Amino acid sequence: MTTITTRTVEYPADGLTMIGHLALPAGVGRRPAVLLGPEGMGLSDVERRRADALAELGYVALAFDMHGGRYLGDPDEMLARCLPLLADPDRMRGIGHAALDVLHAEPRSDPDRIGAVGYGTGGAIALELGRDGVNLRAIGTVNATTTGRPGETARIRCPVWAGVGSEDPIMPPAQRDAFTAEMQAAGVDWRLVVYGGALHAFHHPPVDHPTVPGVGYHPRHAQRAWHDVIGLLTECLPVTE
């Protein structure tokens, strides 16, 4: 296994002090970088481990925070925080840009080779960065077939990959159709993978607290979705020495 370095990073966003997890690959040269956004509950060890796994593959990876260092295990508290956020593209972009600034400030990051991968609310933030015209090489989302403000999706400058469970009641077929219609009308290079039988947050291992209805772990599809994310990054952000 490749030796990696990790550290906690603090930065301001959305009126809060965010606490992200930065993982650096072995070596000293610049490497492609990835923003990694969590589900609505917030940054947890699940995303930290994913950032570490990306660093082992040679990427600079920042698992970014959305809630000022808090993990929102209470469903009502999570919805009270995330629903207004999801309804406000400018706030989502602010959170995304603040995390992006951390990557840009990291000497190991190649500022011309950055991708954004997000789950749930974190995926919506990744998409809003694309709609804001940020120079990203790839956008990958799971459980985040969210739509944006009219006309802004045409500003996405990179391929978009989206994964969603076929039985996800939070991102149902009508929402998926609206998302793909928006991508197609904007001329985006897009892909959608529907994982049969999977619920919302199918990628996330079981948690020891209540969740919103329609959430369920599907280990086989979780592994497949991760492989699909790595495939996207390999295609659009190849790691070269």
TrEMBL record:
Signal peptide per UniProt: none
PANTHER family: DIENELACTONE HYDROLASE DOMAIN-CONTAINING PROTEIN (PTHR22946:SF0), DIENELACTONE HYDROLASE DOMAIN-CONTAINING PROTEIN-RELATED (PTHR22946)
InterPro entries in UniProt: AB_hydrolase_fold, Dienelactn_hydro, FrsA_esterase
UniProt-recorded name of the protein: Dienelactone hydrolase family protein
Gene Ontology MF terms: hydrolase activity
Keyword Hydrolase: yes
Family listed: Belongs to the AB hydrolase superfamily.
Protein source organism: Streptomyces niveus (Streptomyces spheroides)
Domain Dienelactone hydrolase stretches: 20-235
Transmembrane segments: none
Keywords: Hydrolase
